[in-house]
Design a protein that fits this description.
Rossmann fold, 5-stranded parallel beta sheet, 5 helices, alpha/beta, globular, 38% helix
């Protein structure tokens, strides 16, 4: 994911675990978060819930990426507030296209307080 984003000139912040990801999201208020469900220190669902219920981060669109193969994951992700969902391996064009659409000014998501880069976890 990072290589795809670097090629498209996105500034990328990354974290090692859910605690660090929470801190980065609160501090940097990224324009978008790409969240892998398999994170150390708690799972991605916990982080998604935490970010979507916090007044400082609930406006940030979150795109879920996972290697998990359960059939209901996309529905669960969207019902918890995710703006997008992708299974690994990623299709670069579809992934970048979705992020571009989400970040577009006419997107359904409000503009973040600060124009900051995406966060990958």
């Amino acid at each position: 994911m990072k290589a795809f984003l670097d090629e498209e000139h996105y500034a990328v912040l990354s974290s090692r675990d859910t605690l660090q990801a929470t801190g980065i999201a609160l501090r940097d208020k990224p324009a978008l978060i790409v969240l892998d469900l398999g994170l150390p220190g708690g799972d991605g669902w916990m982080l998604l819930d935490r970010l979507k219920t916090n007044i400082l981060t609930k406006h940030i669109p979150i795109v879920i990426v996972t290697g998990q193969t359960k059939t209901d994951l996309e529905h669960k992700s969207r019902s918890k507030g995710a703006a997008g969902f992708f299974s690994k391996p990623l299709d670069k064009n579809a992934f970048i296209g979705a992020l571009t659409a989400i970040l577009a000014p006419e997107s359904q998501f409000p503009t973040p307080l600060l124009p900051t880069p995406p966060l990958t976890t």
